[in-house]
Amino acid sequence: MRIGANVPGFWPCKTCDYNWTSDANQRWFLFAAKERGADIFEAFSNSPPYWMTNSGCSSGGQNFSDNLNSSYYDAHADYLTEVVRWYKEQGLIFRTLDPFNEPTFRHWRDYGSQEGCSYSCYAMKEIIKKVGAYLDKKDLSENTSISIADESTIDEEVSTISCIGEDAKSYISQYNTHAYWGIHRTQLYNIAKQDGKRLWMSEVYVIFAASIIFNKYYEIMLSCYLVECWNRGFISSKDMSTSIQLSEEILNDMRNLKPGAWVYWQAIEDDHNDWNDGWGLIGVNYSNSTTPLNKHLAFYGFAQYTKFIRPGYQIISSNDSDTLAAYDAGNKTLVLVCTNKNKMLNIWDINVSMFNIS
């Protein structure tokens, strides 16, 4: 697997005890975030432990098939909730637990470059119910509920939600979707609203943050699209177009998906890997900690949103598709982030008369 993708687990083998010293670096960052004011924590599972899988490999199954052995459904649910319980004892509470990550994306196969696991709809339904039951049994459900399904596409998220059934939905408080492509943003928003679930856009990165571009190719084979984005990615960290793409994705999602949170994937990436596709906002050398940080142009583009639209601000409507408007009623602060997609000067005439500004 690529550097950073082979993540140690807490249950190393069937006959082993739990090893809570595993993954020390990532645990350090988690608690460091808490110490610095982070107050919402989300847990998700990329893959079951390798010894619970059909392939014996945590990157996926043979021919992209379901990889959690059905005899371990219960054990895996126990494992996931045991991790949540242990963190609670350390003073950190996960608000949600997602047992899956991109479960229907046909990418996860044995001996791949990162951890992942495919699940059928039947498997997801059974695992959701078992995880929910263990949360109840361990007195965790008061603080921690289930989110699903972190599908790679908005359309796949819609499909997964429709198939899991009401008994499984009763354990769910939040729908998480990735926004790598897909067109049914408004439909997903309406489903979440109808079901009474929170909705998050929980992952996207910059070379794929171009759903508007993707829609032009929606009838073309996925492999062609991947080649297109891959070619764009090689110049992304040094090209202003990535900041524009990222802003277009934010605008499209906030206008049509209306998520409660919009989450970028990896803030930091290895600038010195074999593909170097520019997905991170900041590049580093994973093999040499003394090298300086390399802030990609997308870092500055994203900062136009994150520095000014703060947690708790309300996104309000704007009649300009290239402008995101947010308002903080407590501080009476209005924020407008405008995106100029052209290389020419653009001037905005902004009407704020409704705010009674004197």
UniProtKB/TrEMBL annotation:
It comes from the Eukaryota. Coiled coil: none annotated. Keywords: Hydrolase. InterPro entries: 6GAL-like, 6GAL/EXGAL, GH. The keyword Transit peptide does not apply. One of its GO terms (molecular function) is hydrolase activity, hydrolyzing O-glycosyl compounds. Residues 16-155 form the Endo-beta-1,6-galactanase-like domain. This is O-Glycosyl hydrolase family 30. The lineage of its organism: Eukaryota, Fungi, Fungi incertae sedis, Mucoromycota, Glomeromycotina.
